[in-house]
Design a protein that fits this description.
Radius of gyration: 22 Å
Strand content: 5-15%
Order of helices and strands: HHHHHEHEHHEHEHEHHHH
CATH topology of the largest domain: Rossmann fold
Helix content: 40-55%
Low-confidence stretches: 320-335
Number of domains: 2
Strand order of the largest sheet: 2-3-4-1-5
Distance between the termini: 47 Å
CATH class of the largest domain: Alpha Beta
Mean pLDDT: 90
Largest sheet: 5 strands, parallel
Number of helices: 14
CATH superfamily of the largest domain: P-loop containing nucleotide triphosphate hydrolases
CATH architecture of the largest domain: 3-Layer(aba) Sandwich
Length: about 325
């Protein structure tokens, strides 16, 4: 059992978030295929482990990611001296489009920026970013309990909701929390009393702390969160960013897709994969993934791991016949 598995902490805990932020594996040195073949067994295993770690930790800098990052940075600056009416973001879209990756990477970048700046929020003992997920059928106390569990605070049934809320807000002030990421926000439908109360609890917490809030979820616009008077209030303060699959309808869209392919190819570290070879598979990868960044990353990582394990060291995909069969419905859905 590896140390990572033996001491696993979810991202929605301060320990798990700290590990996520500090986990920044370096890119393994580029070597030729001949050098790879000449490595001893132990050196090959170490090199392959380093490649897998590096592959899994990269940021895909899509135009949408950059836009959301810029908006988050702007909201953080705008909220810095606000006491009421703080502004937030909502990141919405279908599954497998990189919403969670986007918001967690934004949180990671903010933490690292504070550390680099030697800002008070980046000093040891500070926790500038909090990440939690909304459980299904979540009530107000359970909502605040997610924050308490992030900090490792007790949440037993004898603690009232108001006490828990005050305790959490006091801890957030003490550790200088500046950004709160609430994932799976689509689990709150304000048309139901329990979810409406949970949404109100989030609003109360935002009023008791200095943090900017980012919500992320699946098709948030149709989840019920933004319905009615409560939803209108959220919509008035939260800027909505809709994440969509890549398109192939114009040269600009195809250029953006190919730029992402080149960026991802660089992270795979395959010894026989020449720079730019991935573009020969551009159309078929688009067809197979429907333009979904999440599915694209998964597809390329699987292919790269196969290439490392079978020692071919280059990306290979299904036959043309198989891909043509997949391509027709995928392109129809994307059009």
């Amino acid at each position: 059992m590896t140390d990572t598995i033996a001491h696993f902490f979810p991202l929605s805990t301060k320990e798990g978030w700290s590990r996520f932020v500090s986990d920044d594996p370096p890119r393994p040195p580029k070597i030729t295929h001949a050098q790879r073949q000449a490595q001893s067994k132990s050196n090959r295993e170490q090199y392959d482990t380093a490649r897998r770690q590096f592959m899994s930790g990269g940021i895909v800098r899509t135009p949408v990611f950059n836009k959301i990052l810029q908006s988050a940075s702007s909201r953080l600056r705008m909220n810095e001296f606000k006491y009421t009416g703080k502004l937030g973001l909502i990141v919405s879209g279908a599954p497998a489009l990189g919403k969670t990756t986007t918001v967690t990477q934004i949180g990671k970048l903010h933490t690292l920026r504070r550390q680099h700046q030697e800002h008070p929020a980046g000093q040891p003992g500070s926790i500038p970013v909090v990440y939690i997920t909304v459980p299904p059928a979540c009530g107000p106390k359970a909502m605040i309990a997610e924050f308490a569990e992030f900090f490792g605070l007790p949440t037993n049934g004898r603690i009232s909701q108001s006490t828990l809320l005050n305790t959490v807000s006091q801890v957030m002030a003490r550790v200088r929390t500046e950004l709160v990421i609430v994932d799976e926000i689509h689990n709150l439908n304000v048309n139901y009393r329990m979810s409406a109360d949970a949404s109100d609890a989030l609003k109360q917490l935002s009023e008791k702390c200095a943090a900017t809030f980012i919500y992320a979820g699946v098709n948030v616009e149709s989840s019920g969160l933004l319905d009615g008077a409560r939803g209108q209030q959220i919509s008035s303060r939260f800027e909505l960013h809709r994440v969509a699959p890549f398109s192939d309808r114009s040269t600009k869209h195809r250029d953006e897709w190919q730029a992402v392919l080149l960026d991802l190819e660089e992270t795979l570290c395959l010894t026989r994969q020449r720079d730019g070879d991935i573009l020969a598979h551009s159309a078929r990868l688009f067809a197979d993934t429907g333009g979904s960044i999440g599915r694209l990353v998964d597809t390329l990582h699987r292919a790269a791991l196969d290439a490392i394990d079978n020692r071919t060291e280059r990306l290979t995909f299904a036959s043309d016949t198989t891909m043509r069969a997949k391509r027709a419905p995928a392109l129809a859905a994307a059009s």
